[in-house]
C-alpha cells in the first residue's frame, strides 16, 4: 500500500499510525509537509515525537497552535482535566469520553488550506478501522464527505488532482504495526498514551491498543510502560 502522491500535507500527531504513514509516504517519494496540532491536549508530549519524525525524514513541519479552542472543547478527557482518561480496551463505551468534538475536521480544514496554499495534491491522515466504532470523523463516510467538501470549497484553487486520503482507513492497527516494521519505523520514537506521563501508562485505551497491535503483528514492542501497568 503506497498512495501515489507528489506532495502530501500530512497530519502527524507523533503516534504510531501517523508516524508509519509519514514513513510510507516518504518511502514512496512524496514531498512531505507535516502538520501537528497543539489543542491543549493533556498528552501534548506527543508533539515532541512528531518533531523527531520530521527531523528523521528531513520534512517541513509546523505545529499549529489551536490552544485558543481549549475553552470551547469541554467534556473530553483529552482536553478537560476534570474528566479522567479511562483504562481498558479501546472499543469499550467508556472510550467515548476521549472524543474531541470535530477534531479531525478542524485539523483537516487547516491541512487543506495549507495544501491549497502550496499546491500540494493531497492531504493525508492516519485514521484506521479500529477508530470507526468510537470516532465518527475517522469513518469512510466522513472521508468521502470531507473530500467532496474540500474540493468544492477550493474549486479553481486546489491542485487539479487534489485528494483527501486515509490509506489505513480499512486496516487494523496491527496491520499498521506490520507495515511500520517492514519500513523500519523506529517505534520507540512514537507516543500513544493519552495520560501524558513521563512514560506510557500501559493501561489507558490507547496503550492497550498499542500493546495489542504489536502482539498481534508479531512485532517487538520497544515501548517503556509504567511498572504499575498490568503485565500481560
In short:
The protein has 232 residues and is of the alpha/beta class. Helix content is 33%, strand content 11%.
Please summarize the sheet with the most strands: 5 strands, parallel
Strand order, main sheet: write it out. Answer: 3-2-1-4-5
State the helicity in percent bands.
25-40%
Shape: globular
Query: How much of the polypeptide forms β-strand, as a percent range?
Result: 5-15%
Radius of gyration: 17 Å
Oligomer: single chain
**Distance linking N and C termini:** 31 Å
Number of strands: 5
The helix/strand class is alpha/beta
Number of helices: 6
Series of secondary-structure elements, N-terminal to C-terminal: EHEHEHEHEHH
Average pLDDT works out at 90
Low-confidence stretches: none
Question: Would you mind describing this structure in some detail?
Answer:
By secondary structure, the chain is α/β, with parallel strands linked by helices. It is built from 6 helices and 5 strands; from the N terminus they run βαβαβαβαβαα. A 5-stranded parallel β-sheet has the order 3-2-1-4-5, with helices on both faces. The longest helix is centred in the middle third of the chain and has 16 residues, at 103-118. The protein is globular and about 55 Å long. The two termini are 31 Å apart. The model has no long low-confidence stretch (mean pLDDT 90).
Element layout with pairings:
Blueprint: E1 7-11, H1 16-27, E2 31-38, H2 46-56, E3 60-65, H3 103-118, E4 122-124, H4 140-153, E5 163-165, H5 173-183, H6 205-217
Parallel strand pairs: 1-2, 1-4, 2-3, 4-5
Helix pairs in contact: 1-5, 5-6
Amino acid at each position: 500500500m503506497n498512495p501515489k502522491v507528489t506532495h502530501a500535507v500530512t497530519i502527524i500527531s507523533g503516534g504510531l499510525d501517523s508516524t508509519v504513514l509519514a514513513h510510507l509516504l516518504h518511502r514512496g517519494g512524496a514531498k512531505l509537509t507535516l502538520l501537528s496540532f497543539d489543542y491543549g491536549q493533556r498528552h501534548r508530549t506527543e508533539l515532541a515525537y512528531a518533531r523527531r519524525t520530521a527531523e528523521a525524514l528531513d520534512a517541513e513541519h509546523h505545529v499549529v497552535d489551536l490552544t485558543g479552542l481549549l475553552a470551547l472543547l469541554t467534556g473530553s478527557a483529552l482536553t478537560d482535566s476534570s474528566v479522567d482518561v479511562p483504562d481498558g480496551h479501546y472499543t469499550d463505551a467508556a472510550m467515548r469520553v476521549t472524543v474531541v468534538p470535530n477534531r479531525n475536521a478542524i485539523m483537516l480544514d487547516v491541512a487543506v488550506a495549507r495544501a491549497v496554499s502550496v499546491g500540494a495534491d493531497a492531504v493525508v491522515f492516519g485514521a484506521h478501522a479500529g477508530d470507526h466504532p468510537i470516532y465518527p470523523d475517522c469513518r469512510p463516510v466522513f472521508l468521502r464527505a470531507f473530500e467532496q467538501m474540500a474540493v468544492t470549497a477550493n474549486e479553481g484553487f486546489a491542485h487539479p488532482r487534489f485528494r483527501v486520503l486515509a490509506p489505513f482507513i480499512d486496516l487494523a492497527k496491527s496491520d499498521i504495526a506490520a507495515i511500520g516494521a517492514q519500513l523500519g519505523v523506529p517505534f520507540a520514537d512514537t507516543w500513544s498514551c493519552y495520560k501524558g506521563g513521563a512514560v506510557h501508562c500501559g493501561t489507558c485505551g490507547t496503550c492497550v491498543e498499542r500493546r495489542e497491535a504489536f502482539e498481534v503483528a508479531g512485532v517487538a514492542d520497544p515501548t517503556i510502560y509504567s511498572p504499575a501497568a498490568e503485565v500481560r
